[in-house]
Amino acid sequence: MKTQETKTLKAKFIGACQGVTGSCTYLQFESHKFLVDCGMAQGEAQADAYNEGKFPFNPKDLDFVVLTHAHLDHSGLIPRLVREGFNGQVYATAATKELAKIILHNSVHIAQKDRANRQKAGGQITLYEHSHVNGINWRVVDGEDEFSWNQNIDLVPGLEMRFLRQSHILGAVSVQFFWDAEIAGTIQARSLLITGDVGVNSQKFAPQSMLRPRHEAEQWADYVVCESTYGGKTHAPEVFSNRILSLQKHLEDQNTKTLIIPGFAMHRMQEVLFDLFIILRYGQLKNQRKVMVTFDSNLAEKVNAVYSKHLFGANAKVQHKWLSKETRSHLREQDAKRYWKDSVKMFAQLLKQGLEVGTHWFGYENLGKQVAQHFDLQVVLATAGMCDRGPVNDYLFDHYADPHAKILLIGYQAPNTRGHRLQRLGEQQKKTPKKTMQELFGNKKSLIEYIQQHFQNGRKEEYITFSKGKQIVRPKWSEIQAQVETLHGYSSHADTLSLIDFVLPPVTQIAPAQRRKQKTVFLVHGGATQKAELKQALEVHGQKEFGPESAHPVDLQVEIPPPNSAWFNFNTNAWES
Q1: By CB count within 10 A, which of 152, 190, 236, 506 is most buried?
Q2: Which helix (H) or strand (E) holds 534?
Q3: Which of 5-9, 335-339, 463-467 has the lowest mean pLDDT?
Q4: Which neighbouring-strand residues pair with 407?
Q5: Which of 207, 166, 383 is nearest to 295 (CA)?
Q6: CATH number of the CATH domain containing 144
Q7: Which residues contact 130 (CB under 8 A, 6 or more apart)?
Q8: Same-domain check for residues 445 and 461
């Protein structure tokens, strides 16, 4: 640090304390007040009340905001801050800035479409308008040639910040703060790490194709605010390693003529596109199938352009800030007789405008039935990922009764969404192979089985509603002829073991001069069960690796803060009354 004057840092935990969305940490460093993230609550019982409720601070008093990544549950209320008088800077990476602008303008667009319904319900018309998104004063941290990941940024006198690359989505970071504190009469360096969302790719295990592994903290963090989305869960490595092979098998399925993949516009769709590109450029499908890949999403098209620009970005000090080193090596090996950068340029062009890859086609426009006849398979990537909105609904409407269609779900499907109902149908299809009417009713036994299966306890067979424009159909499960399957391996959240590695790095990873005797971890951004299970796992690991009998004992405390908590003083290591 550049100064020996001690100052106090403290925090209040505002959002994502009772659920997985709405991340917001309110910090005060002497007279300077700022936020890390200001996200929108989504899909939870009290989401509207949280998003429309009064902030527990005055936005006009904030000096700045630090944004870890562009997802709405981290960025979604920043324009509302602007609407209510905030005019400070928002620190972010260049990719996060551009992605957030797209996502926030889309949020306004959706809110305006729902305006009539919200007025009828007596709710606020919109949280903010396009002008408030445009009014955000961005401070791009990595936009200059002198940028490097291991440098600190002076925020205010006595407080410095460092961005650590995350592998959650393009542009994502964790944020580490540094200051000097007076502890027991002596001046000591202190550090706070706020993880944001922790990605799957780490230095130990990097199964995702596109993004480089996350940075591990090189300096000791006395305090950590950690997400807990997958607390208590463990990713099976084989799920990731088999992902591309499984996707290729779906492409080779001779019965499938139309493969519909509902996807989230930001990152999930780009990962699937990358995998399809690798398969179709370097692989060889059985029976030489010709594949036409159509991506149908105005939002994803804009996001793709940002990925095309920043995924391959570099500067004088950092070569390929985001693109996976392993993928670059793979492309070099595959392109032994060709210049490997051709593949990079091709994928960048694919994201921008589409292109022809051998006998296959990637494009934003459906080439029409006449041209489609020249292809053996049409793959459609369309938003939205949970099938409740977006152009994917037109394809579901057109193909639900098509026995040569397959719906491939690739992400988490929240309860009560169309995607969740489709996922349950897919599970039922696995248990009950399709039967013809003759097979089903050809004998008394199968008729009894049918009645038992579909009319148990007096309940009729379930159905799913599909719509296209003003057309609506409600077919029963037995009338849906398209196959529904789930492809795992596209998770962008670290599991429990990976979170432990990130939060409690081995002592040997930290320089001896920076090793200290105390660490406090605050768990946010997760369900109650996930937080409790991650807390227990951290405490067990901490006792084993840093207990009193270890070579480097650490006093580890794990806290689950309540929403709108009291101030926690990082200098005194205590809650203020």
Answers
A1: 190
A2: helix 528-546
A3: 335-339
A4: 260, 484
A5: 383
A6: 3.60.15.10
A7: 105, 108
A8: yes
The C-alpha atoms of residue 480 and residue 250 are separated, in whole angstroms, by 19
> Beta strands of 19-146 (E only): which ranges?
24-29, 32-36, 64-66, 89-92, 137-140
Q: Which residues lie below 8 Å from residue 182, measured CB to CB, with a gap of 6+?
A: 6, 188, 571
pLDDT tens, 374-397?
A: 889 999 999 988 998 889 999 999
Q: Both 505 and 480 in a single domain?
A: no
Q: For residue 457, what pLDDT is reported?
A: 47
Q: In what order do the strands lie in the sheet with 405-409?
A: 355-357, 360-363, 291-296, 377-382, 258-262, 405-409, 483-486
Strands 173-183 and 159-165: antiparallel
Residues 301 and 329 in one domain: yes
Tell me, what's the pLDDT at 340?
46
Residue-wise pLDDT for 80-104, tens only, equals: 999 999 999 999 999 999 999 999 9
Span 457-462, average pLDDT = 61
Q: Can you give 397-423 as a three-state secondary structure string?
A: HHHCCCCCEEEEECCCCCCCCHHHHHH
What pLDDT, in 10s, does the model give residues 280-299?
888 778 888 999 998 888 88
In this predicted structure, the answer to whether residue 259 has a pLDDT above a threshold of 90 is yes
- CATH number of the domain that residue 475 is part of: 3.40.50.10890
What residue has token string 């729902």? 114
Q: Looking at the structure, do residues 258 and 163 belong to the same domain, yes or no?
A: no
**Cα separation of 310 and 348, whole Å?**
10
Question: Is 575 within a domain?
Answer: no
Q: Per the structure, how many domains does the chain have?
A: 2
Last residue in a domain, options 463, 486, 509: 486
- Cβ pair 204, 502 in contact under 8 A: no
- Which residues constitute the domain of residue 255? 238-486
Give dist(CA 214, CA 164) in Å, integer.
7
Q: Is 368 exposed, middle or buried (0-12, 13-18, 19+ CB in 10 A)?
A: exposed
397 vs 391: CA distance, rounded Å: 10
DSSP single-letter state for residue 321? S
Least confident residue range of 18-22, 32-36, 71-75:
18-22
